[in-house]
Amino acid sequence: MGKRTKMNVTVPEGYGVMIAFEKYLASTELSTTHKDLIKIRASQLNGCSYCVDLHAKDARKAGEREQRIYALTCWRDTPFFSDEEEAILALTEEVTLIHQRVSDATYDHAVKTLGEKYTAQVIMAIIAINGWNRIGIATNMEPSLN
Hints:
This protein is an all-alpha fold.
């Protein structure tokens, strides 16, 4: 892949908005585990290898188990995730694949399980990682082997 622009250098103002978004998310009630699951699953769906690698490493550092990280691609077929996490993962998939729409069933289940405010914060976190994924993919960011 060819070298492409570094967004933080080329458009620091726009990049700064993304950083401010992350600061907002850090101030929310969202747990680290929930944020990590959102970031990894959305990045998998979007095919952003840089973000999958980065956020899987962050999740491990925060204490996430390897087995759960590996199972995210097939989370519906495992007993590894709580009801809250399943609601978050379903919403992550539907917001990320927005062209298919967010179903009333998924949205209503999230609100029933998580509450309206937490669900809104989850949606904001999903929007943020989708933005980062698009930056990573558009600029050919790649993970490094280490």
